[in-house]
Amino acid sequence: MTATTTDRASRPRVEGDREQEILDGVIDLLIEVGYDRLTFDTLAAHVRASKATLYRKWESKPELVMAAVEHLFHKATGPHGESPDTGSLLGDLEAVFCTSAPMLDQLPGVLAATLPALHRDPELKDLFVDRFIRPKTDNLLLMLGRAQTRGELGPDADLRTLASILPAMNFHRVLVEGICPDEAYVRNVIHEVLLPACRATLRD
């Protein structure tokens, strides 16, 4: 579906609480029917909105779904942002990943519906990488780079491999075990896996 600039300007805006309601509806449908069966028609009926209103805000299903995934993660962990410089790698990691905000119960279902579709929908894959994976990876690389400068990692440490440890284990927790990685789990991965791997780069 396409729309002219005039058409878009004449339609009611989707913002604020109404936008959050619609994105919550996307999450509900992802869990209920999956990515492939989620359509603008089913969403419009579910949230009692017109398709024209939905298309005005989101031009494609991948855009819509990615907005909902970001919405879900932001409710649990807060928006992307540069990590605070606490003066140590452990402090940086705990400041970003060991918060009191619970990971939501919907997370396993949403990821189970979304991640397999990445292989079938190039637009969704590009959006997921650009707006979700890359910001988190860049943030981890920033923390690891600071730690390397402080001497907490060896000068030849493979930062990209180290940056993949925590996200990989979190995704495994969700997709294979069907469990949300809570603060205790994340803290354990940091202390028992990631930090020892970082210290290992200091060895001769």
Kindly list the characteristics that best describe this protein.
204 residues, elongated, disordered N terminus, mainly alpha, Arc Repressor Mutant, subunit A, Tetracycline Repressor, domain 2
Structural commentary:
The protein is an all-alpha fold and 204 residues long. The protein has helices at 5-10, 16-33, 40-47, 51-57, 61-77, 89-97, 107-114, 122-150, 159-175, 183-200. The chain has two domains: 5-65, Arc Repressor Mutant, subunit A (Orthogonal Bundle), CATH 1.10.10; 83-200, Tetracycline Repressor, domain 2, CATH 1.10.357.10. It contains ten helices and no strands.
Question: What is the structure about, briefly put?
Answer:
By secondary structure, this protein is mostly helical. Helix content is 67%, strand content 0%. The protein has 10 helices and no strands.
In the CATH hierarchy, what is the architecture of the largest domain at level 2? Orthogonal Bundle
Shape call: elongated
Number of domains: 2
CATH classification, class level of the largest domain: Mainly Alpha
Helix-strand pattern, N to C? HHHHHHHHHH
Helix amount, in percent?
A: 55-70%
- CATH fold node name of the largest domain: Tetracycline Repressor, domain 2
Proportion of β residues?
Answer: under 5%
Mean pLDDT: 86
- Strand tally is 0
CATH superfamily of the largest domain: Tetracycline Repressor, domain 2
From the alpha-carbon coordinates, what is the Rg to the nearest angstrom? 20 Å
Termini gap: 60 Å
What oligomeric state is this? Answer: single chain
* SS-derived structural category: mainly alpha
> Count of helical segments?
10
* Main sheet: strands, sense, barrel: none
Which stretches are low in confidence, meaning pLDDT under 50 for 5 or more residues running? 1-11
